[in-house]
Structures are given as structure tokens and as C-alpha cells.
């Protein structure tokens, strides 16, 4: 059997952080190889308009932006490959990574690895929610990205954690009215975040309330909800439906080697850098960021990861 391919800089994931890491690594002559994963382009492929990424004065749609980032990475000869990384072994000097399943998995060796696997927003899983999300009909998991489209309108947000409170407060500045649906009789969010929500007059919190259906054919027209204590069903009028029930970082395959927090996010071992607890392995983007979660912050950390990887190799005299 031939020796596994030895890669200088292996980037796992193809969102804004992965491609930005690739652009920087390629321009530094690190000959990066980027594996795209199961959702090439990452979360932005689920977004319609991106109006907050600097440099696009007219906005751009998410999938187009990802194609632009990919083309930019390829312009500097990033080797972009399809494939799903299923297993890693970060116990040795050289990092081992397997692409594909079972006996057919391809073993690769890498001097540096940049983990850019992102996080996936959780959805309620209602047919109406997913259908309207997929046609860009007013269902979103990111208030900062999409709130602007609902200026002066009435919106509903589901969730009771810090994210939901933060997003509800953000929406309250733009929208006429925000109705927050909390499934229990209390919120999970910190007291400070709850105060922020309660202090805003145009946020109404409905406790013990669950979503039954998002109404509307082409676009959100309302939300049918049920009080799980009384059984009473009500229809709320709204043009936007926001889901803020948490994210799942895509880090499960790294758990035996990389330090993760209780929710599975990669621990930022040395704040202000992309260094992880394993030498030569770096993080970028939402797999380690549960606070900001923006395309631009993900891109920024992709740049950091490539620079950190380059400096790591240079310090070892290998670049
Ligand atoms: P969390 O997991 O903290 O909260 C998720 C919320 O969604 C919970 O209130 C949960 O309800 C609710 N939920 C889950 N599933 C459903 C469902 N099917 N229907 C209705 N509600 C549902 O996620 P967050 O994204 O809010 O936060 C993740 C982490 O990031 C936390 O540690 C948080 O503190 C941190 N964070 C910090 C911020 C800050 O400091 N500024 C900002 C944002 C996040 P229930 O409570 O009933 O389980």
C-alpha cells in the first residue's frame, strides 16, 4: 500500500471561515487542501440576502457569496475537494484524518489542520417552518442577518436562551412588535438578558407556549400557537418567524482529542488566537464561536487560523 498523502495545511469545512483560511494559506504558499463536507458553502447556503458583509454595497445572496469565496480560494490554487471527514487521530506528530466511510475511507496525513466545520442552527422541524425557510419566505435562524427585512413589522421569535433574548432585543429595535414564544414557564437565559427583554415595551413574552404551525403559502402571514397549560390555541399575525433554539457545533469527530465545552464548542485555548489544545490544530468560525456567529467574524478567524498555522510551521522550520 502506498503511503498516505502528506498535506501541509488541511482545512476541514467550506463556510466563510474555511475559504478565508484557504485564501490566506494559499497566498502564503502553504498549498492548502480544503474538504468541503456535507453542506458545501456552510450555513450561508441557507440564507437569501446577505446585507451585512462589508464590501457588498448592494448586498449579495448567500450562495453567490460562497461561490465567490470558493473562486477566490481557487484563484490561488487551493485544492478544493468533495468529501466528508469521518475520523481523526490527533495523538501523534502528524495529524491523521480519514475521508469517507469504513474500509473505503481515505487516510490523509497533515502537518497542520484548520477545523472550520461550523455549527448548524436547530429548527423546530415543522413542515411549514422548513418549507417557508427553504423558499426564503420569512423564516430565519439569524436576526442580525435578516431582521432588517422586517422593519416596522410584527415578528415572532421562538427560544428562551441568551441567543433568543439577544435576537429579540435586536429585532425590537427594528420591528413594530416582537412576540417571544417560551415553551416553559421560565427562560433559560441569564437574568441580565431577561431584564433586557422585559425592559423593552414592544416585546411580548408568551410563556408555556409552543408553535403548532407557521402560516402562509409563499411568505409568513402568521403563527398558530398553543398554550401547553390551558390547551388554548391562538393565531398571531406576523410577517417574520425567527428560530433561536440553539446551534449544534459540528465537532463530534474531534471530541477524543480537541477540548470541547459542555455544548460541544471548541475551547479557545489561547484567547485572541486560533490555537487549540493540540499543537498544529487550529479552529476557525462557528465551531468555536457561540457568541458572534457572523460571516464576517468567521472569515476573520479563518484569516487568524491560516496565519497561526503558517507561524507554527515556520517555527518548526517547515515553512
Ligand atoms: P441554549 O441552548 O442556551 O438555549 C436554547 C433555548 O431554546 C432554550 O431556552 C430551550 O428551551 C429552547 N428550545 C430548544 N428547543 C426548543 C423547541 N423545540 N421549542 C421551543 N424552544 C426550544 O442556546 P443559545 O443559542 O441561546 O445559547 C447557547 C450558548 O451560548 C449558551 O451557553 C449561552 O449562554 C451562550 N450565549 C451567550 C451570549 C452572550 O453572552 N451574549 C449570546 C448568545 C449565546 P428550554 O429552556 O425549555 O430547554
Global shape = elongated
Q: What structural category arises from helix and sheet content?
A: alpha/beta
CATH architecture descriptor name of the largest domain = 3-Layer(bba) Sandwich
Q: What is the CA–CA distance across the termini?
A: 28 Å
Strand content: 25-35%
Total helix count?
7
CATH superfamily of the largest domain: FAD/NAD(P)-binding domain
Q: Fill in the CATH topology of the largest domain.
A: FAD/NAD(P)-binding domain
CATH class of the largest domain: Alpha Beta
**Distinct ligand kinds:** NADPH dihydro-nicotinamide-adenine-dinucleotide phosphate
Keywords:
7-stranded mixed β-sheet; FAD/NAD(P)-binding domain; 319 residues; 25% helix; alpha/beta; single chain; 19 strands
Describe this structure in words.
This protein is an alpha/beta fold. It folds into 2 domains: 5-120 and 248-315, FAD/NAD(P)-binding domain; 123-243, 3-Layer(bba) Sandwich (FAD/NAD(P)-binding domain). The chain has 7 helices and 19 strands. Strands 1, 2, 5, 6, 7, 8 and 19 form a 7-stranded mixed β-sheet that branches. Helix 1 runs parallel beside helix 2 (62-75). The longest helix is centred in the C-terminal third of the chain and has 21 residues, at 295-315. The chain is elongated, with a radius of gyration of 21 Å. The model has no long low-confidence stretch (mean pLDDT 95). The structure holds NADPH dihydro-nicotinamide-adenine-dinucleotide phosphate (NDP).
Amino acid at each position: 500500500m502506498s503511503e498516505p498523502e502528506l498535506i501541509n495545511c488541511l482545512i476541514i469545512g467550506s463556510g466563510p471561515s474555511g475559504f478565508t483560511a484557504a485564501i490566506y494559506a494559499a497566498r502564503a504558499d502553504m498549498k492548502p487542501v480544503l474538504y468541503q463536507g456535507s453542506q458545501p458553502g456552510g450555513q450561508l447556503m441557507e440564507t437569501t440576502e446577505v446585507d451585512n458583509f462589508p464590501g457588498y454595497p448592494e448586498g449579495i445572496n448567500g450562495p453567490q457569496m460562497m461561490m465567490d469565496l470558493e473562486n477566490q480560494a481557487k484563484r490561488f490554487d487551493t485544492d478544493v475537494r468533495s468529501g466528508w471527514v469521518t475520523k481523526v487521530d490527533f495523538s501523534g506528530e502528524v495529524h491523521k484524518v480519514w475521508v469517507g466511510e469504513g474500509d473505503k475511507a481515505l487516510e490523509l496525513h497533515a502537518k497542520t489542520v484548520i477545523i472550520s466545520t461550523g455549527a448548524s442552527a436547530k429548527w423546530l422541524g415543522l413542515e411549514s417552518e422548513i418549507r417557508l425557510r427553504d423558499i426564503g419566505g420569512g423564516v430565519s435562524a439569524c436576526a442580525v442577518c435578516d431582521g432588517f427585512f422586517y422593519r416596522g413589522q410584527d415578528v415572532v421569535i421562538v427560544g428562551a436562551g441568551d441567543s433568543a433574548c439577544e435576537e429579540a432585543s435586536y429585532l425590537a429595535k427594528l420591528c413594530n412588535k416582537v412576540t417571544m414564544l417560551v415553551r416553559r414557564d421560565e427562560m433559560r437565559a441569564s437574568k441580565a438578558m431577561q431584564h433586557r427583554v422585559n425592559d423593552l415595551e414592544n416585546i411580548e413574552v408568551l410563556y408555556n407556549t409552543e408553535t403548532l404551525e407557521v402560516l402562509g403559502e409563499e411568505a409568513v402571514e402568521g403563527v398558530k400557537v398553543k398554550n401547553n397549560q390551558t390547551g388554548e390555541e391562538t393565531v398571531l399575525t406576523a410577517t417574520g418567524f425567527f428560530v433561536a433554539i440553539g446551534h449544534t457545533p459540528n465537532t463530534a469527530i474531534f471530541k477524543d482529542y480537541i477540548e470541547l465545552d459542555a455544548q460541544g464548542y471548541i475551547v479557545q485555548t489561547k484567547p485572541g488566537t486560533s490555537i487549540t489544545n493540540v499543537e498544529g490544530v487550529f479552529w476557525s468560525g462557528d465551531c468555536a464561536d457561540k457568541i458572534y456567529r457572523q460571516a464576517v467574524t468567521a472569515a476573520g478567524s479563518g484569516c487568524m487560523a491560516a496565519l497561526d498555522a503558517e507561524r507554527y510551521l515556520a517555527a518548526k522550520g517547515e515553512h
